[in-house]
Amino acid sequence: MTSDRFREGLLASKTVILPRLNRLSPSLESTALKIMEESGELAQAIGKFRGLSGERQRLEEEEAMQMVARELVDVAQTAVTMMFVLEEQYGIDLEAILKEHITKLRCKGYCD
């Protein structure tokens, strides 16, 4: 994916399918804490690439970006888990929330 393809409008969105995790009993609170933990690991991976972790040696770009991508997917998986918690434990209609979100983004001019 190049920025040129984005500018041309060929890749207007990305669909990510992540599973509902079995063998877990997440609560709203435990899932929120897990999102924070995973976000910290993502920040740490970026810090290692940028040399911000206090270490003398920085990671090579390819290795660092692989680490960043893995941590980002962990954040996304945990966010999806929280969506399941909201739907199943609190009856939240996430389809409606997602539609509102897209409308908000369009109104702000972030997407077509």
TrEMBL record:
Q: Which residues form a coiled coil?
A: none
| Pfam families the UniProt entry points to | MazG
Q: Which InterPro entries match?
A: AF0060_NTP-PPase_MazG-like, MazG-like_dom
Q: Which residues form the NTP pyrophosphohydrolase MazG-like domain?
A: 28-106
Q: Report what the protein is called.
A: NTP pyrophosphohydrolase MazG-like domain-containing protein
The species this protein belongs to is: Desulfosporosinus metallidurans
